């Protein structure tokens, strides 16, 4: 039986179990004079039966699918008379056997392999049968057992809620473990990179040219992995973006929260949020095709030299992209400042602008700072705009009209195309990713800490 | 005025109901005019024919009242009767509420409060306000009190400012409790201290009138007693209008009491008269606790 069919059957069984559990409870209640004589509502008895029917069977099924291949592999390899010594040779043999079993033949297979392939096919058939049989037996068995043990005193709700709590915990853990998993994989790849390139060179080297020689006689591809130009490039683009986003975002938030009438607000807020919904790739070609040439021409007009891909173009457009981020976070915290504070300030004879400047903004400041830090980490991690508009040359420069490159851009270029997975060139992407991850992690941590620590407790 | 002894009077003194019919008061009784003495000779604030609308709804109906110099006037009445709205007319705090419209003549020392040429900023400096919930700014205690003098440019030098802050805190009865921690946030004080801080903040700009909107409703009895003492002391220098839900408090702190009902001013009289011999049946019903 195919696995999808099995899942469908299991689902059907679960539904039947729910129905019978429910009916059983209702019948019992009717016999003894009303639902009040049950320990829980009938729905909980239904769920209780369904959970016992479905959950263990599902776990068994998942475990079976997860381990079935590995166990069969071990069994087939171990059954061979002269099995190879090394793991990689075993893997090779295993692939061969699988290919033969699947019918992908190149010429006549060796008799030993052909035999193993037959063995494999037989094992797989058995496994499939056993899987379907065991799952269904477990489901019906436990379902029936639960129905048999039904009694009006059974506290079905408590049991169901306990299971639900575990399910919730499992979901929460899934996100946490994924994060940890990603962090660890990036970390280990980075460690491999740092075996090839010293940490000090990576962190403090001034030259970035990640071309590795494939052959010993290749020219001009020594490979230099000094990431400082990338860090400065990232910082410059981020700084330009924040120069645009923070004042404009903050001012528009103040206007929307404090001065705008209801009608303006109803119109302007959704429009700002649309700006947040524009895909970054659209911003990217806007930056590359419209803003960057404009900046180059403008610079030429005043006698400056600007490259056609510049940090300024990328930073300006990224700033525009982040405006709604800053403004909507600030708008929320400004709105959260209680009206009583405004009344207090106005009641002392403050003007509206004094109230905003001296009372509302200071009260909202922790939230605003937190929002800005989150925006910074967003800007650092932003990729598409800089890929298109900032350029690829790892220049160590302080001139915003020059083209620069950022950490994210280099990660993209290092991993695009065919790559060897063990060369420092590829592994460098992981080290850069690790740096990026740590930076944004620290920024987010500080942001959340600032927001939490300095938030006034208005009840 | 002695602050505590009227406590008993406030509770027990109201005249006994004379007949059984009076026990059921028609609370929808149309109030056509105010009984008692709404006017006085030496008035600080004169209000004539005040109507307030929130959009289409009329919240205050033709109210006329004087508040005398160095007098404490208490405004009482059931929830939603318009006392707070009326109070907020006096320093034009209603301006901040969208759709709120005020009609009628209000004068402070015979100068109009509403009018095209009136600037609300100096007006609110002359008419201070203390709110129901203590609302200290999220600044230090010192900065809270210094806020008003700073924005109005009252003190030019640091020493002057220090003096104003100390004086205001002393008059609000808070100085001894906070003098060693002026640089700590005002929001860290207890509820009663916060409210006294707000009073200090209000008197730091030397207003002539102080409006208090249920200043003790969020406080415990001990803090309430301190604020009430304070109100009594402040009367020497200021004119005070206080809205309160506590009739004992009205009896303890005020010289005259105004009873509001559904947007009408029903009765204004000497506090003692209102609580011992109310002239209007609605007032009597309210203070004897038959509704409200």
UniProtKB/TrEMBL annotation, chain A:
UniProt xrefs under SUPFAM superfamilies: MetI-like (SSF161098)
Record InterPro entries: MetI-like (IPR000515), MetI-like_sf (IPR035906), Phosphate_PstC (IPR011864), PstC_N (IPR022182)
Species this protein is from: Microbulbifer halophilus
Keyword check for ATP-binding: no
Topological relation to the membrane, as annotated: Multi-pass membrane protein
Subcellular location, record wording: Cell inner membrane; Cell membrane
Functional summary from the UniProt entry: Part of the binding-protein-dependent transport system for phosphate; probably responsible for the translocation of the substrate across the membrane.
Domain ABC transmembrane type-1, residue spans: 231-447
Lineage summary: Bacteria, Pseudomonadati, Pseudomonadota, Gammaproteobacteria, Cellvibrionales
Domain of life the protein comes from: Bacteria
PROSITE patterns, sorted: ABC_TM1
Ranges that cross the membrane: 49-67, 163-186, 230-259, 271-295, 310-329, 359-380, 427-451
Regions annotated as coiled coil: none
Keywords for this protein: Cell inner membrane, Cell membrane, Membrane, Phosphate transport, Transmembrane, Transmembrane helix, Transport
Gene: pstC
Protein's name according to its UniProt entry: Phosphate transport system permease protein
Family: Belongs to the binding-protein-dependent transport system permease family. CysTW subfamily.
Gene3D superfamilies to which the protein is assigned, alphabetical: MetI-like (1.10.3720.10)
Pfam families hit by this protein: BPD_transp_1 (PF00528), DUF3708 (PF12501)
Main location: membrane
């Amino acid at each position: 039986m195919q696995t999808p069919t099995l899942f469908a059957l299991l689902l059907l069984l679960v539904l039947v179990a729910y129905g019978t559990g429910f009916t059983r409870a209702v019948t019992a209640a009717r016999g003894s004079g009303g639902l009040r004589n049950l320990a829980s509502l009938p729905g909980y008895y239904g769920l209780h039966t369904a959970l016992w029917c479905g959950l263990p069977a599902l776990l068994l099924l998942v475990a079976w699918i997860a381990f079935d291949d590995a166990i069969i592999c071990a069994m087939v390899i171990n059954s061979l008379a002269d099995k190879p010594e090394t793991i990689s040779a075993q893997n090779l043999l295993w692939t061969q056997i699988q290919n033969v079993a699947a019918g992908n033949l190149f010429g006549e297979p060796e008799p030993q392999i052909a035999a193993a392939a037959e063995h494999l096919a037989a094992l797989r058939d058995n496994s499939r049968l056993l899987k379907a049989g065991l799952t269904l037996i477990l489901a019906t068995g436990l379902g029936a057992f639960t129905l048999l043990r039904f009694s009006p005193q059974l506290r079905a709700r408590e049991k169901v809620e306990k299971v639900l709590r575990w399910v919730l915990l499992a979901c929460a853990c899934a996100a946490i473990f994924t994060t940890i998993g990603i962090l660890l994989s990036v970390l280990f790849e980075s460690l491999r990179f740092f075996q090839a390139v010293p940490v000090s060179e990576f962190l403090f080297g001034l030259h970035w040219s990640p071309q590795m020689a494939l052959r010993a006689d290749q020219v001009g591809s020594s490979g230099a992995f000094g990431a400082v130009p990338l860090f400065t490039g990232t910082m410059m683009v981020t700084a330009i973006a924040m120069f645009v986003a923070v004042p404009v975002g903050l001012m528009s938030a103040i206007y929307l929260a404090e001065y705008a009438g209801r009608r303006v607000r109803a119109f302007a807020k959704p429009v700002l949020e649309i700006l947040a919904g524009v895909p970054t790739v659209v911003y990217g070609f806007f930056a590359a095709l419209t803003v960057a040439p404009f900046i180059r021409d403008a610079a030429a007009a005043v006698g400056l030299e600007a490259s056609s891909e510049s940090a300024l173009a990328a930073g300006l457009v990224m700033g525009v992209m982040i405006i709604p981020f800053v403004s909507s976070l600030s708008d929320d915290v400004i709105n959260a400042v209680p009206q009583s504070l405004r009344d207090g300030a106005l009641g002392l004879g403050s003007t509206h602008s004094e109230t905003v400047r001296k009372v509302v903004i200071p009260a909202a400041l922790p939230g605003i700072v937190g929002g800005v830090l989150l925006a910074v980490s967003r800007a650092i991690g932003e990729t598409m705009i800089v890929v298109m508009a900032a350029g690829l040359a790892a220049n160590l420069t302080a001139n915003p009209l020059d083209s620069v490159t950022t950490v994210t851009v280099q990660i993209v270029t290092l991993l695009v195309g065919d790559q060897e997975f063990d060369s420092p060139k590829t592994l460098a992407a992981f080290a850069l990713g690790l740096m990026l991850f740590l930076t944004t992690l620290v920024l987010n941590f500080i942001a959340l800490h600032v927001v939490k620590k300095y938030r006034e407790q208005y009840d | 005025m002695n602050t505590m002894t009227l406590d008993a009077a406030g509770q027990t003194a109201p005249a006994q109901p004379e007949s059984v019919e009076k026990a059921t008061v028609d609370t929808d009784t149309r109030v056509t005019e105010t009984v008692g003495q709404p006017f006085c000779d030496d008035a600080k604030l004169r209000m004539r024919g005040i109507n307030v609308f929130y959009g289409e709804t009329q919240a205050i109906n033709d109210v006329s009242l004087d508040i005398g110099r160095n007098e404490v006037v208490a405004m009482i009445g059931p929830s939603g009767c318009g006392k707070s709205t009326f109070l907020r007319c006096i320093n034009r705090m209603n301006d901040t509420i969208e759709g709120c419209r005020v009609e009628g003549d209000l004068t402070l020392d015979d100068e109009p409060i509403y009018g095209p040429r009136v600037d609300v900023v100096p007006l609110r400096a002359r008419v201070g306000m203390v709110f129901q919930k203590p609302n200290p700014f999220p600044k230090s205690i010192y900065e809270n009190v210094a806020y008003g003098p700073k924005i109005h440019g009252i003190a030019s030098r640091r020493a002057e400012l220090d003096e104003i802050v100390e004086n205001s805190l002393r008059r609000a009865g808070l100085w001894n409790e906070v003098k060693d921690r002026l640089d700590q946030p005002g929001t860290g004080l207890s509820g009663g201290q916060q409210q006294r801080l707000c009073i200090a903040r209000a008197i730091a700009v030397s207003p002539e009138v102080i409006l208090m909107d249920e200043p003790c409703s969020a406080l415990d009895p001990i803090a309430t007693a301190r604020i009430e003492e304070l109100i009594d002391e402040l009367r020497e220098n200021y004119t005070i209008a206080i809205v309160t839900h506590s009739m004992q408090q009205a009896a303890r702190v005020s010289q005259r009491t105004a009873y509001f009902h559904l947007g009408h001013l029903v009765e204004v009289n000497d506090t003692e008269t209102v609580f011992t011999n109310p002239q209007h049946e609605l007032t009597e019903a309210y203070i004897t606790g038959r509704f409200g």
